[in-house]
């Protein structure tokens, strides 16, 4: 079954909100008795994170909210989206991190909404 795609055509994150892309998960670390710390990668470490804010007109916001709640099962499903990787947008598989607390809506005016999100980005 194909993954759903980002529902908004005018996808453009606010450049001032963009936090640097973390290209891998933090390694597992174990403190040893001798004072050293052993670090090792985890399976699936090709998963990165990106935090961004997207400004939307109210009509696109309504489509987005319905898509997150319905298509993605309250934001828990995976989807494809164009992600800025430093030099260009690349289509990647994504997932919201903690959609209940990290997917935030700022209603700026009757016709503008700022949606802040942290995405888990696969294969970066």
| Number of separate helices | 2
Q: Which structural class best describes the helix and strand composition?
A: mainly beta
- Share in helix: 10-25%
**Which band does the percent of strand residues land in?**
35-45%
The tally of beta strands, per DSSP, is 7
> Compute the gyration radius: what is it?
17 Å
Q: Any chance you could write out the topology, listing elements then pairs?
A:
Blueprint: E1 28-31, E2 37-40, E3 47-57, H1 58-71, E4 79-84, E5 89-96, H2 99-102, E6 104-109, E7 112-122
Brief characterization of the structure:
The chain is built from two helices and seven strands, in the order βββαββαββ. The protein has helices at residues 58-71, 99-102; strands at 28-31, 37-40, 47-57, 79-84, 89-96, 104-109, 112-122.
Features:
2 helices; elongated; 15% helix; mainly beta; two-stranded antiparallel sheet
